[in-house]
Amino acid sequence: MIYNAVLEINLKNVIHNYHSIKKNLGKSTKIIPVIKANGYGAESFHILETLAELGVETFAVAYFQEALTLREKGFKKTIIVLYPQEQNLKEIIEYGFEPVIYNKYLWQKFQNIALSNEPLSIHIEVNTGMNRMGFSPKETLSLLEEIKDKEARFKIKTLFSHLSTSEDITDREKALKQITLFEQVKKKSENLFPDTKYHILNTSGVFNFPEYTFDWVRCGIGLHGYANHPKWDALLKPVASLKTKIIQITSINEGDSVGYGNTFIAKKTMNIATLAIGYADGIPRDYGMKGGEVYLGNQSAPIIGNICMDATMLDVTNISCVIGDEVCFFDETHPATLMGKKLGTIPYEIILRATERVKRVFIK
């Protein structure tokens, strides 16, 4: 099958990013790669295999189906399911995945299903202020006492929380308050479960709060080359590059319009290049109206008019180019952060946008 656009995944940069993050950790602190949403849109399997070759033993995904897809492809390392659902608990146990228990309802359902002869490894999430998932600190302490009485059935592998402002260095107070609450729970947990490990930091947290790395840290976007701050981004290398080709070049006159809705009217004679990519491939329809641009080598070309379902038009009046030339939306030189700023969003969303019409190509 021939694709109109490709998302290149540089696995060498994944390795670089892993080692760069590792330098900020204590010798005993381990990284849990969070390879959810199909590896942030890059396809999970090759990234996990690359990290496993570096010695990583434990990985995390969001939902059961993501874990199942990896297992069916032959990935045998430990997989944590961050958001297990009631209907998947039985299969999570059968496949040997490790669920996060994040509320009383799920805990009760899990107990009813967990009938293994061996202790089942679980992870407990504490809600210290994110208010998304997790037991309150008080609920957590009660849960720990309950599990202590059932220690033959369950092993708490990790106890963790999640910071809501880890990337915002101007709002350290909120993060430090969450860390303090977590440390209080951690202290009491350690008395009951000396073998349990603890983690609260994501990628941004690793860089902004290196004194609180604890036993493990969770890194997702950092392994893809972004850390939510220019200083930290400079230490990493973007992994994904979105590329396509010019499929037509047209000359238009003053007063001619481009694209649907006549949102662009030429004020002079211009050369317009059409790209083989559109909003069906993940490019926001209004990107051109928000100052969107693409790159032909070291030259940038503005997108003009509304982006179509299958095509994007550029102003190449002052750029030497021909049909078949490669055009880039983001890459290592022009990170997705730039596109995100124009769209008022974060690089996470940008690199996730590429749809199934965009071929994934892996560079080793």
Structural write-up:
The protein has 364 residues and is an alpha/beta fold. The protein has two domains: 11-226, Alanine racemase (TIM Barrel, Alpha-Beta Barrel); 240-363, Lyase, Ornithine Decarboxylase, Chain A, domain 1. It is built from twelve helices and 18 strands. The strands form five sheets. Strands 1, 10, 13, 16, 17 and 18 form a six-stranded mixed sheet that branches. A six-stranded parallel sheet has the order 3-4-5-6-7-8. A two-stranded parallel sheet has the order 2-9. Helix 6 links the parallel strand 5 (98-101) and strand 6 (120-125). Helix 1 (11-22) crosses helix 3 and helix 7 packs parallel to helix 8 (172-192). The radius of gyration is 24 Å and the shape is elongated. The mean pLDDT is 95.
Quick summary:
The chain is of the alpha/beta class. The chain has helices spanning 11-22, 37-40, 44-53, 64-72, 89-94, 104-113, 137-148, 172-192, 203-208, 230-233, 336-343, 347-352; strands at residues 5-10, 30-33, 58-61, 78-81, 98-101, 120-125, 154-160, 197-199, 216-219, 240-252, 257-258, 264-265, 270-275, 293-296, 299-302, 312-315, 326-330, 358-363. It is built from 12 helices and 18 strands.
